[in-house]
């Protein structure tokens, strides 16, 4: 099978060819300029996916945060060349942009590149040296291809302007509580509570609590917190006729099924740190695949990427606030104590409490955003895991975003790490967050 275009690693030579049309025309018109800027954003989106997979400490919440600020940078770097859009300054908690263009001519391709590169370079500052060299090559190649139609002073002025936009976003990001999250995923001072219904360390790694303070991070939209204030787990009980016991039995019985379909789905959507782009990278890959296939205009693409990043980041904060508020027990612990001492899950239980499901929160939020731009009747062919050999990475097809979000959510039951009721409740609240973000952020003039 021929490898899809969008799974190709974009080499500096390919980037040069990608912008070859920039080099020989005398003057760039508005349509071509917007197309080239969007192409630059897509190149850096690809790099962000690779960085997420290969940067130590980029667990799911950490990468969700990084994508969020990166998406804000993409949007603000190009918003001034898109008449339909306006800056979101003043709409997000603490973000008040002060750098604006004057009447001097600018090279907006260099501005887009500078903002994307600078924010990624900061967010993924723990990247391996080999990836540092790689993004430097990408940066240099884009600069070379994008500078040819403009004079030296215009190009220098544009790079300075892009740096100002990026640094304002970076400085603003430092005060949300998550700036050093990648370096402190397991704060040693945190001691989880102990009770019959409480989460405890689970096999195989018996890792301590992951990011127990993440739910205290400053939200980009403070009122998001109220959306999930009524989200709470079902009543804990060890009685055999209880709702909880029946929920555990569903997980236990599912683990006995020999149908490989459930295992394939569980592994496909596992999206664990260190070997995948995490849930956020997966969602952005799907969104960019569809955007490029449909030749999405820059105004719609920038707005979608912006709202997708904000929605997923808000969903992570909400989910982790609730996780450590309720500290609910994982199925593996409950089942081994009360039903089947030999029980094991298909995928490893993450090192944090069970309720709510982070995957379900994020899939609900992300798919509601994509639904708002593509409609729910869109056929999705997800090739994100095409090149993976550790799982069955065959592209998966869905007839709607709703169908896809439901499979993402139920995959955690198939994996044996969540109760079914948790998944259904979490998906519903995640959707509420996605809808709220779409309705609240005003991008259009």
Describe the structure.
This protein is an all-alpha fold and 445 residues long. It has two domains: 5-173, Vanadium-containing Chloroperoxidase, domain 2; 195-440, Vanadium-containing Chloroperoxidase, domain 2 (Orthogonal Bundle), CATH 1.10.606. The chain contains 16 helices and two strands. It has a two-stranded antiparallel ribbon. Helix 4 packs antiparallel against helix 5 (108-123).
Annotation keywords:
Vanadium-containing Chloroperoxidase, domain 2, 2 domains, two-stranded antiparallel ribbon
Topology, please?
Elements: H1 12-18, H2 20-24, H3 30-54, H4 60-78, H5 108-123, H6 129-146, H7 152-173, H8 224-227, H9 243-256, H10 260-268, H11 278-293, H12 298-326, H13 331-338, H14 358-374, E1 380-382, E2 396-398, H15 401-414, H16 420-440
Name of the level-1 CATH class of the largest domain = Mainly Alpha
Number of helices: 16
What overall geometry do the principal axes of the alpha carbons give?
elongated
Strand content: under 5%
Question: What's the order of the H and E elements?
Answer: HHHHHHHHHHHHHHEEHH
Please give the number of β-strands: 2
Tally of distinct domains: 2
Oligomer: single chain
Q: Biggest β-sheet: count, sense, barrel?
A: 2 strands, antiparallel
Q: What is the distance, rounded to the nearest whole angstrom, between the alpha carbons of the first and last residues?
A: 45 Å
Indicate the percent of residues in helices. 40-55%
- Arithmetic mean of pLDDT: 94
Look at the helices and sheets and give the structural class. Answer: mainly alpha
Low-confidence stretches: 1-10, 20-25
CATH architecture of the largest domain: Orthogonal Bundle
- Return Rg in Å: 22 Å
CATH topology name of the largest domain:
Vanadium-containing Chloroperoxidase, domain 2
